[in-house]
Model the fold of this input.
Amino acid sequence: MTAAAVRYDPQGVYEVLADLASPCYIVSGGGRVGAMPEPPAPGGGLRPLAAVGPLSPEEIGSGDFRRHHGARYAHMAGAMAGGIAGEELVTAYGRAGHLASFGAAGLPPARIDRALERLRGALGPSEAPYACNLLHHPTDPAAERACVDACLRHQVRCVEASAFVRLTPDLVRYRVAGLAPGFASGGVRAGHRVVAKVSRPETAELFLRPAPEAMVADLLARGQVTGEQAALARTVAMADDITVEADSGGHTDRRPLVVMLPMVLRLRDRLAREVPAAARVRVGAAGGIGTPEAVVAALALGASYVVTGSVNQALTESGTSAAVKRLLAEAGPADCTMAPAADMFEQGVTVQVLGRGTMFAGRAGRLYRLYRDHAGLESLPDAERAYLEGRILRRPVAEVWRDTAAYLREHRPEWLDRATGDPKYRMAMVFRWYLGMASRWATEGDTARRGDWQVWCGPALGAFNAWTAGSALAAPEHRHAADVAGHLLRAAAFHSRVTQLRLAGVRLPAVCTTYRLPSAASGPGTSPGARTAGPSPVPAPAPAPG
Done:
């Protein structure tokens, strides 16, 4: 290619870099630095400085992850509880080639059953990827069992196992009941895939090892797995993939990804010397994934795939209200805070929620302080009781307890028996009513309870909002799953090429190395593989050599 084909202007350099289907050569000549899509011809007066090869969004991350899950991209949309990651969102992602997990946590069995039936009808015939979230219930194993039963009944091929601090019989049952001898090449075929979401190395180790033999033997004795499956279970790890969850929305240990991901990778490689099956387990990254730079950083740390969470709640297809989506679109990275968790209230466990535009965190925190400092509702000072009924519950305590008792009588009679004789536990149940309803009020967009909305959210969403500011994706109504994920991964491929050049010592102006989203005027409608032209850059100096 001749020297005339070199692009020296910032727009031209950007276009060469953004053409992900072609290589990019950075060359110098005549005291200037430019870019071209082919190597310079010998003797043409151009000196090559660095080069990067083609890199499509489909190529970033682990190809093994994509093949194993039948996905087009090494990206997963993590589950959001209460059906926020609902059928519409999972279907949209699945049809676009992304693995997405249905948010079954907190839903009654009948609702989960209907959702999995719909997903099987919408995605099953096309073999599009999807999963169902399986949440560990230490105090309610029946809920976990019902979810596994539904997954088996509807032939769900993948579950996202969340919040497990130990392996349970029903999780092991799901895993082992899908094992079968491999094809002609030998090995084991895992018909039931498990993606385990963890935030601690000791939990990751549970999933890197085979299922506990005693637990498998008990399942065999009960006739829930076959002898062949029990034997095969000794040769496979409990999980196909382990997602290391860092600072995320909802339940989170708020651990830094740069600390936790390398630790789990080293743990896997060390265990592989003892347990060969561990070597085949891929490790992904979640928490803080809201920008293309975050995707690139996670992959550079060794992640096989990335998982988005908070960002998905703001998509048009998510199962929360339009009012919450508007609120989420205004959030900054510092607009998150911690609040008591409904499911583990008595233990003082917290979840990360949106702090801007709602007073939920402060009110929930006050409830926990009342629970901690008083023996029961009857012991509350008159002023606290008046504030509780007038500003938080907005109902008499007696009415809330009546409704709570009616629910427990039907669904958790043993909890009702305990609450009847234990004033402090009864207080916890009343406060849990508020915490549980707060997420429902948000999902339904109940404007009368706007100040009480509980919206699970991590700082990734604020970073996403900053990245998309001024573009078509800034508007909540334009945040479609396929568009958002498509741009996020395409931009990640673009920034991967930029990063490779930087590591080679090439310095380029920011105007050349910043991925351009479609403008607000042009709309977001680009497919995941489509080229994004973006607006012309403002005048900038030519790239400097070096």
Notes: The first strand starts at residue 24 and ends at 29. Residues 127 and 539 are 48 Å apart (CA to CA). Confidence is low (pLDDT under 50) at residues 526-546. The radius of gyration is 26 Å.
